[in-house]
Design goal:
The protein is α+β, with helices and mostly antiparallel strands. The chain has helices at about 1-5, 15-25, 70-75; strands at about 30, 40-45, 55, 65, 85-90. InterPro entries: AlgH-like.
Length: about 110
């Protein structure tokens, strides 16, 4: 069930879950992103630019989201490690930067 939750946003959770479990096993890095929308599925974050379906979060950062199916295939083939990927479940609704309590920062790998 947990694999299906992680993969829910792909729209292919039922089909991908067995391959995900074979590839990632107990080595998936899963983080709680916040208390809201935990049932919505996970966001995959990584630095693997060549994954089909991956999108760079901002130009030049080398940080990507998406490409779940390709990530599973890369780990299964040994082209990537489960530790190359981070899965974030949940969000923080209403986080704002205008009051200074949260700040956007530049990041790079």
């Amino acid at each position: 069930q947990f694999a299906k939750l992680l993969l829910k946003q792909t729209g292919e959770a039922d089909a991908l879950a067995p391959a995900f479990l074979d590839a990632f096993g107990t080595k998936a890095c899963v983080y709680l992103g916040g208390p809201s929308q935990q049932e919505a599925g996970a966001i995959l974050v990584h630095g693997v630019h060549s994954l089909e379906g991956a999108v760079e979060v901002a130009p030049g950062t080398g940080i990507y989201t998406g490409g779940e199916r390709a990530a599973i295939e890369a780990v299964s083939k040994g082209d990537a490690s489960p530790l190359d990927f981070r899965w974030f479940v949940g969000r923080h609704k209403g986080l704002v930067t205008s009051d200074g309590s949260w700040r956007a920062v530049a990041c790079a790998r």
